[in-house]
Each structure stands twice: as C-alpha cells, then as structure tokens.
Write a structure and sequence with these properties.
With 39 residues, the chain is an all-alpha fold. The protein has one domain. Helix content is 41%, strand content 0%. The chain is built from one helix and no strands.
C-alpha cells in the first residue's frame, strides 16, 4: 500500500462499496471521504 496514493486507494474502496451495495455510480449524488496523516 506504500506505493498507492490516497486518491487511488479511495477510488478502489468506493468502487468496491458501490458494487457490494448493488448501486450504479449514477445513483449516487455525493460521497464524502477524508484522509488523515499522522504527524
């Protein structure tokens, strides 16, 4: 995971969640996601 950007990781997670939920991307208006880096 070290070489995967936060954007790529989030995109993969969201696509998987949509697939599991049986939703098409067109059915979703908005998704909020956050990213935190430990200092």
């Amino acid at each position: 995971m070290k070489t995967v950007s936060a954007v790529e990781f989030g995109t993969t997670a969201i696509r998987g969640a949509l697939e599991r939920a049986g939703l098409a991307p067109e059915e979703v208006d908005e998704i909020l996601i956050g990213n935190v880096l430990q200092a």
